[in-house]
Amino acid sequence: MRDCPEQRVISGVRVVTPVKVLSGASITINKNYFVEIEGSEDPIAGEKEDWLIPGLIDTHVHGAGGADIMDARMDSLFQVAQTLLKLGTTAFLAATMTVDERQLAKGLKTVNSFIRLFQDIDDKETAAAQHKLNGIRYTAECLGIHLEGPFISGRFSGAQKSVYIQEPSVSLLNQFQAWSGNNIRILTLAPELVGCENVIVESIRLGIIPSAGHSAANWLEAQQAKSWGIKHITHGFNAMRGLHHREPGLIGMALADEEIAVEIIADLVHIHQCILDILYRLKGADRLILISDGMRALGMPAGEYELSGQSVRVSQGEARLTDGSLAGSVASLLDGVKTMIFRVGIPIPDAVRMASLIPARLLGIEKRTGSLEKSKEATFLRLDPDWNLKEVWVCGNNIPIK
Questions:
Q1: Which candidate in 293, 323, 350, 384 is catalytic?
Q2: pTM given for the model
Q3: Residue 293 annotated to the active site
């Protein structure tokens, strides 16, 4: 990303920091970074001011704008990344599906090529590189891959195709990571499956976060998985055993253990408002990660769509397969933040943190992004007083989103 051309000041706004809201605030940007953030903690003073929040980071999104990661085409990845940016998501992990091995290989290699394209541009301070950058529309930053499957439970496969589920294998995991160019950051798997202990240990060795999901694990199996290194849960409450007072299962273990982080889809379709409230009360903001789990209909009108060869009907804010199973979400990550604030009623800094600083910490990039703080990248969203997206700023550049 190019340096912004000059020092800039934005004033008369409300700034959401990790722990508080500053009213009548101003931010100063020099080149790509925040150099000053000032304001008052008086809530009355800024009632009619715009909001500034960090750019949002989605660690689990399959598609957007009519395109899908598993299309395995560069034009589709550009469409997904451009659409996400226009919706307020400035960085993301490209989530895969459980598909045949040839298609998975193609998808992983295409995401690697997409990531490397931008790395090459950033690394080359040449006129040719700058010309190439000028020819590419601004996009959300792809931080890597969330490999969802194929080591999952057939009983809780959800919208994943069960015919392509594979037995857990260290050699397969290494093959997947090689195809991805070492860009797999999260691996969703069912820890109760035979062979998962070795896969979990190997994923940690490779720098991949193992995450339990699409799983039939009972409480004892979940406890065992934690001892192997599981500290993360994929889209909590979905595609797993429900919470039961005699068998709490994977989600019960996650709720009771303060070390476990849980992904949540706050679209009021995947999880009821009451459960979102319970999750927040039990886990707190620092152990909850808002995700979209968006599919290709994200940012698109209702109608007929496709998900890895399966027909999907989008109607009234829900995406479902022909058998009625949920097939991802059509609510953006910013929609999820607003749900947590205005429907669940949690403090604004907490809701924002769950979609910015917490995923940044998970991925180890919190020193450069994820919050509005001095010396960090000036990547943020400007919202009107009613929380409608007005502007997206990336590294100090105001990006056209209309």
A1: 293
A2: 0.95
A3: yes
pLDDT tens-digit series, residues 155-165: 988 888 889 99
> What single string gives the DSSP state of each residue in 337-386?
HHHIIIII---HHHHHHTTTHHHHHHHT-TTTSSS--TTSB--EEEE-TT
C-alpha 380/C-alpha 8 separation (Å) is 14
**Angle between the 170-179 and 196-205 helix axes, to the nearest 10 degrees?**
40
Each domain of the chain, given as residue ranges in start order, spans: 1-55+369-402, 56-367
Positive or negative torsion for Cα 13, 398, 27, 370: positive
Residue 35: which residues within 8 A CB-CB, separation 6 or more? 7, 28, 29, 374, 375
CATH of domain 56-367: 3.20.20.140
Residue 121: pLDDT over 80:
no
10 Å Cβ neighbour count for 208? 25
Q: What is the CATH number of domain 1-55+369-402?
A: 2.30.40.10
pLDDT over 90 percentage in the chain: 86
Cross-strand pairs, 398: 393
- The pLDDT of 347-363, averaged and rounded, is 98
Pairing mode of beta strands 21-30, 8-16: antiparallel
Q: How far, CA to CA in Å, does 332 sit from each of 238, 284, 369?
A: 18, 22, 20
Which residues is 381 bridged to in the sheet?
53, 392
Q: What count of other Cβ atoms lies within 10 Å of the Cβ of residue 149?
A: 25
Mind listing the pLDDT tens digit for each residue in 55-100? 999 999 999 999 999 999 999 999 999 999 999 999 999 999 999 9
Closest CA to 168 of 135, 215, 207: 215
